[in-house]
Every structure is written in structure tokens, then in C-alpha cells.
């Protein structure tokens, strides 16, 4: 079946603008994760959704970052008033259940803030 | 919270040699340790994983070892090939349903 998909693949924006990044998890996967990968760095956890439970937001770097997951499927990561340090690849992953180990990653959205 | 350290940051080997990448973790409650391979411009792909009730796992040319007492785990690639060239990330997870905590990655270059 189809894997995790993300859109757009690339986004260039001006400092101060808001951006929305979208993630479509694997069908039927209940757990969804957002990570950020800055140049030359590892993957930094941002936020985690599991079914209808309250999300784990402990990784969000500031209150400019928020995410929603509607209907337990598609998720949108919103960054308000973007800053140059927000430039990174934003990766989404999903897993079958909260107890499932394997996380499957999407191709990422490369965000460039000018 | 969990912290994962990964070494080396870069590794160059000749085709056919072995490559070893090491990671340490801080939280003794962590129980799941995956390794991901990321080729340039591509998404991370799981290549092997190990759980805390196992000391070693092997899949063809790739093996992972885990030392719970010392809180470190290693990736071993034997008979390296040019297509093994990529960035490799280790990760640890404290409990089911929580996020993976990643190391900063190792860039492996295999020259023929």
C-alpha cells in the first residue's frame, strides 16, 4: 500500500510568514509523529499523536509551532511568524498502533525561510 | 529524558571492509533501539532494530548488538559495498508509543 506522504515537498517563505505542512500517514496507522531535521543534525522530535488522546507536545520548540490531526488521519504542522532558524526538513512518521515499534517516515518537507 | 550519543560522525572504509557505528543512551528504561539509513535526499529507512530482551540481532550483512548494563548499542556492517554509503542514525525509545530519540548520525562512505 501507499506509504507516508507529505506536502509540499519544498516550501520557500519569507521571514514572518505562516506556513502549513501536511502529512498523510499510512492508512490505518493510529500513531503519527513529527520530527525536524536541521542540516547535519539528527532528527529532533516535535509532537506525537495517538488516536484520540491528547497529543504529546513536549518537543515543540516554541509557541509558534502547533499541529492538528483531524479525524485521526491527516495532520497539519503550522509554524507561525517563521524565523530563519526554522529552516529544516520536517519529517512525519506513522506507526500501526501506540504499541507498535516501527515508525515509517515520509519524504519530508524542506522548509527554507528567507 | 533520554539522550543518545552517536560516534563517529563520519566513517570512511574501503569496499569489503567492516564498519562499526556506536551509540550510547542515558535512560535505562529505554527498551527499543532501531537503526535508520538515510540516503541523500531520501527518507530515513529502518534497516534493523533490537529490543532490550535481546543481546544481538543479525540480518545478512548487518548486525546490531546491545549492552544494557553499559547502555550502549552498535551497528556492524560487514563486506561493505558502495551502496551502503549513506547517513546512519541510531535511536532509542523509552516505552511503546513514545517518540524516538535520535543520535546525530554517522555519514558512512564506502569507496571502491
Summarize the structure.
Chain A is built from no helices and 10 strands.
Describe this protein's structure.
The complex is a heterodimer of chains A (114) and B (112). Helices cover 0% and strands 46% of the residues of chain A. Chain A has strands spanning 5-7, 10-13, 19-24, 31-37, 43-50, 65-69, 75-79, 88-95, 104-105, 109-113. In chain A, the strands form two sheets. In chain A, strands 2, 4, 5, 8, 9 and 10 form a six-stranded mixed β-sheet that branches. Chain B is mainly β. Chain B is built from no helices and eleven strands. Chain B has strands spanning 4-7, 10-14, 19-25, 32-38, 45-51, 56-59, 62-67, 72-77, 86-92, 101-102, 106-111. In chain B, strands 2, 4, 5, 9, 10 and 11 form a six-stranded mixed β-sheet that branches. Chain B has a five-stranded antiparallel β-sheet with strand order 1-3-8-7-6, with no helix packed on it. Chains A and B meet through strand 4, strand 5 and strand 9 of A and strand 4, strand 5 and strand 10 of B.
Question: How are the elements arranged and paired?
Answer:
The complex is a heterodimer of chains A (114) and B (112).
Chain A lengths: L4 E3 L2 E4 L5 E6 L6 E7 L5 E8 L14 E5 L5 E5 L8 E8 L8 E2 L3 E5 L1
Parallel strand pairs in A: 2-10
Antiparallel strand pairs in A: 1-3, 3-7, 4-5, 4-8, 6-7, 8-9, 8-10
Chain B lengths: L3 E4 L2 E5 L4 E7 L6 E7 L6 E7 L4 E4 L2 E6 L4 E6 L8 E7 L8 E2 L3 E6 L1
Parallel strand pairs in B: 2-11
Antiparallel strand pairs in B: 1-3, 3-8, 4-5, 4-9, 6-7, 7-8, 9-10, 9-11
Keywords:
heterodimer, A: mainly beta, four-stranded antiparallel β-sheet, B: about 110 residues, mainly beta, five-stranded antiparallel β-sheet, 11 strands, globular
Helix share of residues of chain A? under 10%
Strand content of chain A: over 45%
Q: Give the overall silhouette of chain B.
A: globular
Largest sheet of chain A, if any?
Answer: 6 strands, mixed
Total DSSP helices of chain B: 0
Average predicted confidence as pLDDT of chain B: 94
Cα shape of chain A: globular
Fraction of residues of chain B in helices? under 10%
Q: CA-to-CA gap between the ends of chain A?
A: 37 Å
Low-confidence stretches of chain A: none
What structural class is derived from the secondary structure elements of chain B? mainly beta
Q: What is the C-alpha radius of gyration of chain A, as a whole number of Å?
A: 13 Å
Taking all residues together, what is the mean pLDDT of chain A? 92
Structural class of chain A: mainly beta
Chain pair forming the biggest interface: A-B, 27 and 25 residues
Amino acid at each position: 500500500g501507499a506509504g507516508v506522504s507529505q506536502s509540499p515537498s519544498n516550501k520557500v517563505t519569507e521571514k514572518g510568514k505562516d506556513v502549513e505542512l501536511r502529512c498523510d500517514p499510512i492508512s490505518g496507522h493510529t500513531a503519527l509523529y513529527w520530527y525536524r531535521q536541521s542540516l547535519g543534525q539528527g532528527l529532533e522530535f516535535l509532537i506525537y499523536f495517538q488516536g484520540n488522546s491528547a497529543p504529546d507536545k513536549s518537543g515543540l520548540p516554541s509557541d509558534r509551532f502547533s499541529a492538528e490531526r483531524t479525524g485521526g488521519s491527516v495532520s497539519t504542522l503550522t509554524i507561525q511568524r517563521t524565523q530563519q532558524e526554522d529552516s529544516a526538513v520536517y519529517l512525519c512518521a506513522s506507526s500501526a498502533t501506540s504499541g507498535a515499534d516501527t515508525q515509517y517516515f515520509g519524504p519530508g518537507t524542506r522548509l527554507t525561510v528567507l | 529524558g533520554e539522550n543518545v550519543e552517536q560516534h563517529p560522525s563520519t566513517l570512511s572504509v574501503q569496499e569489503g571492509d567492516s564498519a562499526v557505528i556506536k551509540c550510547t543512551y542515558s535512560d535505562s528504561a529505554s527498551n527499543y533501539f532501531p537503526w535508520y539509513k538515510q540516503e541523500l535526499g531520501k527518507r530515513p529507512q529502518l534497516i534493523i532494530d533490537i529490543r532490550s530482551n535481546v543481546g544481538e540481532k543479525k540480518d545478512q550483512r548487518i548486525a546490531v548488538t546491545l549492552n544494557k548494563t553499559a547502555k550502549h548499542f552498535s551497528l556492524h556492517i560487514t563486506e561493505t559495498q558502495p551502496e551502503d554509503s549513506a547517513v546512519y542514525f541510531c535511536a532509542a525509545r523509552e516505552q511503546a508509543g513514545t517518540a524516538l530519540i535520535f543520535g546525530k548520525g554517522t555519514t558512512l562512505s564506502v569507496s571502491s
